Amino acid sequence: MTTDQARRERWQRYWDKHSASYDKQMRFFDRVLFGDSRAWVCSQAAGDTLEVGIGTGLNLPLYPAAATLTGIDISPAMLKIAADRARQLGREVGLREADAGALPFGDASFDTVVCTFSLCAIPGHQRAVSEMHRVLRPGGLLLLADHIAGSARSVRAIQRLPETVTVPTGGEHFLRRPLDQVRAEGFAIERRERFKLGIVERIAARKPALS
Ligand SMILES: C[S@@+](CC[C@H](N)C(=O)[O-])C[C@H]1O[C@@H](n2cnc3c(N)ncnc32)[C@H](O)[C@@H]1O
Question: Is the CB of 34 inside a 6 Å radius of any atom of ligand 1?
C-alpha cells in the first residue's frame, strides 16, 4: 500500500467513526461561528454543481431547486447520511466516494464547485483546489466557506495551540488560507467576506472564461 492510500484510509476511518455525531457538533459551530455561510454559498450555486467533501449533506436543503447536484466524499458513512437526507428532502443528488485530490470527473464538467468546511480537513488542500479549478468550466464559479488563520498575529498564536492536537488526531487545520491557492490557480475573486476576528472566510471566485 502506498503512503497516500494509507493516509486516505486513515482519514476515511476517522470520518466514518465521527459520522453519527457530526451533525450535532456542526450545528453548534454553524450557530456560534459560521452564521449564514451555508446559505451564502449555496444560494449562488447554479447549473451542474459539484460539492467536494459533502459530508452528511448539511447543505442539501439550501441549494436552488434548479441546480443539478453531485457530491463526493472519502467517507462512506458520511455519504450514507447524505443519501438519507437527500431522500428525505426529495432531492436528487449523485453521490460518489472519491478523493478531493483526484476528482473522478473530466476537465470542465461543472458550472459550480462548492466546498464548505472541508478544506480545513483535506490533506493536500492545494491539490484539492487545483482539482476544483480543473473540473470547473471556463466562466464557472467556485464557492468556499471555511475557518482560516485569523487576521491578527495574537489570534493566530491562539489558533496554533489547538492545532498541535487537532492536526495529528483529526487532520483539522486552523491556520490555512485557501485564498492563496485560489489566487494561485488564476481565479478572479468576485466576493470575499471575513468575520469573527477574520477566522471565518467565504469566497466566490470565477474561473476566467476562454477569450
Ligand atoms: C468538516 S467535514 C465538512 C462536511 C460538509 N462539507 C459540511 O459543510 O458540513 C469534512 C469532510 O471532508 C471529508 N474529507 C476529508 N478528506 C477528504 C478528501 N481527501 N477527499 C474528499 N473528502 C474528504 C470528510 O470525510 C468530511 O466529510
Answer: no
